[in-house]
């Protein structure tokens, strides 16, 4: 069982108004907790989820796709969402062209039909292996492997795991394309455990069964859902809060947790708030300098790393041209992480369910206003922080070169969102089971650690992690677990 707030009247502080913080506040309110406050440093909610309404379409600049394991987010959308969940139309991706590029020896002489058969065999083997390693899949963090054989089997990077198990086509189709496309995985740099969390048996099933959609999306955008939760559950959020110091101690008279904050725009307005319980949603590593971290917290969380950055740009342009080999061009840029624009998404086309060749590269009517303009979100992924001027300029230059190549000029950038991505633990720490050590630490010093840095960096995963914590926590006074 996990230790948590002791009474429904406990004052609970949640740091961060991203999906995990807001979802946790909503769940606690729903369970009957009365005193919850979210402290957010920015002047908006949503964290790394960023939506822009443009030309009558909610342009989802970050969070967009939902794989088949997003049961709990899907349920939430069905209950509180004001739009609808739709299948992502076929994106005309030629996986086998990518496989031929990456694995010339393995694919030489094989027809597409032969490669499809091989992929099928690999996927079936992967599914069986996953179940053998972890049993019934718990999204998005499987049970801690207790046995040395399993620990050995899951060590190393995603690529090493797939190569050990002779699954090159899964590596190309699933890992390189789907994961790297949105930055979820960098198979040659990220622990196999993260890969096993994301590539689920259900996802594999969808890959084989054409009648099951591989991905869906919510056409009103996640921000609208978060706003509904805030409104319906009367969730209090203090925006623009700069946290100066967090002290946790049982000896304080007014509560176990003392937080010194100031208003971001009026530094003279500092205040001290007392709470009984603390829930931290951003990376704990980023808070270590303001927090009275215990040696064990310091040891675990100082090891978190963030070495990837995303730039998403909403751009209006003419339609331009189709590249003759778009997928290969993508595969090459995907592997470089140097801000080459690696993909763009035409959300208007998706909401209108344009599919097949019309969807490819956004060759569709571009908006409800009927103008011959393509409004698309372009993603750039890299290892250096684009807020450093030279890096930002280089990224801008690469985007411009791409737009010229695609003859989408003149173009205008309507909105831009830059963010770090995929805070995680290193391969060797994951080999030692550090992500499960965090789970064991929950409740330590009256604190829960939630959010993308302690599970998998997707909105679906953070919601399921919250629910898992709550399921393992006995509600005050009752001994009952929260469902
Ligand atoms: C380009 C891109 C595409 C993505 N696509 C998808 C997708 O298709 N599907 C999917 O499921 N997920 C996707 N994601 C991931 C998803 O956006 C994140 O996993 C999700 O936002 C994590 O939620 P969170 O609440 O844990 O963290 P965050 O969203 O990062 O929220 C943390 C919050 O804490 C606040 N904060 C930080 N430090 C402090 C502090 N010191 N004091 C107060 N507040 C603080 C931040 O301002 C922020 O509001 C994508 C992300 C990116 C960048």
UniProtKB/TrEMBL annotation:
The source's domain of life comes to Eukaryota
A GO term, aspect molecular function: oxidoreductase activity
Pfam families according to UniProt: Amino_oxidase (PF01593)
Matching entries from SUPFAM superfamilies are given as: FAD/NAD(P)-binding domain
The Amine oxidase domain, residue ranges: 20-99
Membrane-spanning residues: none
Q: What is this protein called?
A: Amine oxidase domain-containing protein
